[in-house]
Amino acid sequence: MSAKIQAIRGMEDLLPDQSPLWQRLEDHARRVFEQYGYRNMRTPIVEPTALFVRGLGEVTDIVEKEMYVFEDRNGESLALRPEATAGIVRSAIEHNFLYNGPMRVWTVGPIFRYERPQKGRYRQFNQFDVEALGFEGPDVDAEQIVMLARLWKSLGIARVELQVNSIGDASDRKAHREKLIAYFEKHATVLDEDARRRLHSNPLRILDSKNPAMQSMIEGAPRILDQLGDAAAEHFAALKVLLDEAGVAYRVNSRLVRGLDYYNRTVFEWVSPDIGAQSTIAGGGRYDALFEQLGGKPTPACGFGMGVERLLLALQAAGGESSFEPDVFLVHAGEAAGIEAWKASEKLRDAGLCVILGAGGSFKSQMKKADASGARYAVILGEDEVSAAKLTVKSLRGAGEQKMLALREAIEHIR
Ligand code: ATP
Ligand code: MG
Fold this sequence. Notes:
With 415 residues, the chain is α+β, with helices and mostly antiparallel strands. It has two domains: 19-169 and 229-317, BirA Bifunctional Protein, domain 2 (2-Layer Sandwich), CATH 3.30.930; 328-414, Rossmann fold (3-Layer(aba) Sandwich), CATH 3.40.50.800. It has 15 helices and 16 strands. The strands form three sheets. The protein has an eight-stranded mixed beta sheet, with helices on both faces. A five-stranded mixed beta sheet has the order 13-12-14-15-16, sandwiched between helices. The chain has a three-stranded antiparallel beta sheet with strand order 2-4-3. A hairpin with a 6-residue loop joins strand 15 and strand 16 (402-405). Helix 5 (139-155) runs parallel beside helix 9 (230-246). The protein is elongated, with a radius of gyration of 27 Å. Residues 83, 113, 115, 120-122, 125, 127, 258-259, 278, 280-283, 305, 307, 309-310 line the site of adenosine-5'-triphosphate.
């Protein structure tokens, strides 16, 4: 026997038993996004490496150490997408699909990051990615946040906290950056190796550090919120009014910065207290400079990514359950019944029902399989039924009442 081959570390299978909950989550998300006018699109999972280096910034965690990069057979450098926004913006520029005006789009699919695998953190994970392209906001920023509140409600997730911040415009960030560097230099002895490395390349990211030894120093760092210019300050104030009007509670977290270079003004995260250390289920913000950075016309935009696996953990923590539930398991006994069952199964499907056709064998073992299948009804075809041209419909829930019915009545009954 050959050795078994296992999945790659940090890349998980989604097994059939877990899938119904996953699908329920996807159905709800799709429905809510469509309610707000977001249209589905899909981009490739592989893109030129340069797209992410230019789009995300060279000194981001993702580009420095998390990307899966490889050469294809022509020697071109390609990357498995470590996020979805850059690909969507590339596509919008390439196909000029904003020529008619702004557009709301969403996508879902796998994302790849070489990170240390743990609960809520994987090397292949799935994201819903939602983007409002060509909108200056702040109404659309607020709309995205409120849309997520609606999604949590529709999924029955009650415990989730919203944090918002503004990281200002480029000029605000430049002024803040200088103050930050000066402040960190003053506290150089407390900085860890990562922070020292970032001091001049990406000091904002030091604020995001989880190192306990640096927390009180970080607490005292100059706040970007105190540096906002008038335009960014007004934008942020208006965002907060819209959230208040919608009755969506938030906490202003002046240390919230997010990992990628392309953000400006609004940033936000939705955090669950119930899923362990990797607690952000959705995060995003505004990225008004990204189109230009990727060779497009200046186009303001706002978006967020939502991690499906983490959302699933939150859903489970909230007691969410779903199981596979076909309408019918078709049990048949005897040779004549076999062919009748084959025909009946297709007729039941013609009526829109979900039907598992049993493989024959003893009546008892088939009934066991019917029970285990999760189906709502067993439809039984034996010799009696064949000679009467009827079907026995037996409920697999509750007391298990059963009736012998003609096909049309059986369909009505099951529906
Ligand atoms: P984190 O701070 O947890 O690393 P991030 O800021 O890197 O998150 P984003 O790039 O904003 O995350 O991605 C959006 C969402 O995707 C996150 O809020 C999270 O739900 C999910 N996510 C990010 N990285 C992973 C991962 N390695 N495994 C599973 N889900 C992830
Ligand atoms: Mg990360």
